[in-house]
Amino acid sequence: MRHPAPEQPADVVARLRATFRTGRTKPVDWRTTQLRRLRTMLTEHGATLATALHEDLGKSAYEAYRTEIDFTIREIDHTLDHLDAWLRPEPAPVPPHLGEATAWTQYDPLGVVLVIAPWNYPAQLLLAPVVGALAAGNAVVAKPSELAPATSAALARLLPEYLDPEAVAVVVGGIPETTALLDERFDHIFYTGNGAVGRIVMTAAARHLTPVTLELGGKSPVFVDRDTDLETVAARLAAGKFLNAGQTCVAPDYVLTDPETARALEPALVRAVEALYGSDPATSDTYGRIINERHFDRLTALLGSGRVVTGGDTDRATKYIAPTVLASVEPDAPVMREEIFGPILPVVTVAGLDEAIDFINDRDKPLALYAFTESGTTRRRLAAETSSGGLGFGLPLAHLTVSDLPFGGVGESGMGNYHGRYSIETFSHRKAVLEKPLA
Ligand code: NAD
Fold first, then answer.
1. Residue 171 to residue 23: CA distance in whole angstroms
2. Coiled coil where (predicted)?
3. What's the pLDDT tens digit per position in 359-399?
4. Measured distance CA(307)–CA(215) in Å, rounded
5. Is the CB of residue 249 less than 8 Å from the CB of residue 194?
6. How many CB atoms are located within 10 Å of the residue 155 CB?
7. Which atom of ligand 1 is least distant from the CA of 147?
8. Which residues are near ligand 1 (CB < 6 Å)?
């Protein structure tokens, strides 16, 4: 049997644009219906997605639900609860020279938007932006990552079954397919992934004067102050770092601390890793695997950057890299020259807070900065004297689960943001309206 040829990107976009022009995606009812259907898809096929995520990343079911499926459901529920309020036109005071008149802003959908997702949270990072795009009344082309093929195939099959197929399309494929999509004119492009491709996306978008959101990565530092409870620090640090085998955009990338605290932190980290994954993490049900051989080889080459405190074991056949802590790491060691994006945690020593702040400010602006400290002054100084996409005190990763906080980077870690009402801002045009009576 011959399969019909896949629809060309130009035809997909033309079809969605025609739908958008009919006005079908604009009523709030259409939007909430799509969100509810997406929610149903996630509840009815959570297990399908969890299996696919296990196949792609060795993700445990617990992690799949917590960080992808239930995470997206929460985003949907939060949006459904507040959408009417977020969309309400906002009155603006009118200056006296206009006499009797009213003015307000209202959110207009942009049109047809493109969402390009990466492989590390391949469901969440495709679907959470799609939630915002639909809530804002747009038609959407969703491009999942080819590097997570099982999840990508599941989403390509399920999304058209549940969502309005004339307004939502999934295009699967890698570089050639994405390149072809990027030739088309979109009204917004939302890209999550690395900065090199971010530049390609932005260049393509510039040809059509299309605005972009770039959710990129980078090295997110963790400052550990002296005199903190290191058992708590190590437990929270290890949990945030080794989730998804370190393949998290906001994972703690490296630790900055003074030499004495570094020495005390080492055994605490060993205990924390063992508490999470047992004495042999290779046999743990909850510890993930590296996405592919290319990343496995890249990561194993970084293991020589310091003294191994715990971990260091690898197995290429299963793409296993043990949760690894490296001590005595020099600031210019290979592991410090690129975003690690894997289960390796280097500890770099500095004299104290001043040097830590300089260390951070000497490098690209990170997606997240974390600190463990009891000192309010230290927290205030870090907040005021550094720049990062987000800032977390006492608990890595958690800020991005707060639905009312914007999630996004700054500088090399990206531009624009989303989640909750910030997704409405991202996927809408805020239109200024003035109304002056004729008589
Ligand atoms: P990836 O390789 O899956 O690429 C992301 C997307 O870009 C894919 O859909 C892919 O098809 C597309 N792509 C790849 N090459 C392309 C090209 N030449 N032209 C057009 N499209 C292309 O994922 P990745 O980039 O390896 O993801 C990891 C990076 O993403 C890390 O830097 C990480 O920090 C970052 N990240 C950021 C966030 C965030 O929310 N800020 C979340 C996750 C990952």
1. 23
2. none
3. 999 999 999 999 999 999 999 999 999 999 999 999 999 99
4. 33
5. no
6. 26
7. 3
8. 116-120, 125, 143, 145-147, 174-175, 178-179, 192-194, 197, 200, 215-217, 249, 339, 341, 367, 409, 414
Look up residue 129 and give its two tokens: 């932006």
Q: What sign does the dihedral 422-402-374-306 (CA atoms) show?
A: negative
DSSP-derived letter for residue 407 is B
CA 103, CA 91: separation in Å to the nearest integer?
6
Single-letter code of the amino acid located at 389: G
Ligand 1 centre distance from Cα of residue 371 (Å): 27
φ, ψ of residue 311 to 5 degrees: the values are: 85, -145
Q: Which two tokens stand for residue 324?
A: 């690894």
**pLDDT value of position 67:** 97
Residues involved in catalysis = 215
What is the identity of the amino acid at 225? D
pLDDT at 2: 59
What tokens were used for 392?
Answer: 């977390």
H or E, element range at 237: helix 230-242
**Quick one: three-class SS letters along 142-206?**
EECCCCCHHHHHHHHHHHHHHCCCCCEEECCCCHHHHHHHHHCCCCEEEEECCHHHHHHHHHHHH
Q: How far is the CA of 267 from the centre of ligand 1 (A)?
A: 35
- Sheet containing strand 90-92, strands side by side: 90-92, 102-109, 428-435
Of 120, 11, 375, nearest in space to 227 by CA: 375
Task: Give every residue of the chain whose pLDDT is below 50, as ranges.
Answer: none
In this structure, the strands spanning 324-327 and 307-310 are antiparallel
User: What integer pLDDT is reported at residue 170 of this predicted model?
Assistant: 98
| Measured CA distances, 187 to 17, 53, 56, 109 (Å) | 10, 31, 31, 9
Query: Nearest C-alpha to atom 41 of ligand 1 is from which residue?
Result: 215
Domains and CATH numbers, the chain: 9-216+409-435 (3.40.605.10), 221-401 (3.40.309.10)
Q: How far, in Å, are 199, 296, 297, 341 from residue 292 at the CA level?
A: 24, 6, 9, 13
Q: How far is the CA of 191 from the centre of ligand 1 (A)?
A: 8
Half-sphere exposure of 3 (CA within 13 A, CB side): 3
Q: In 3-state terms, what secondary structure has residue 384?
A: helix
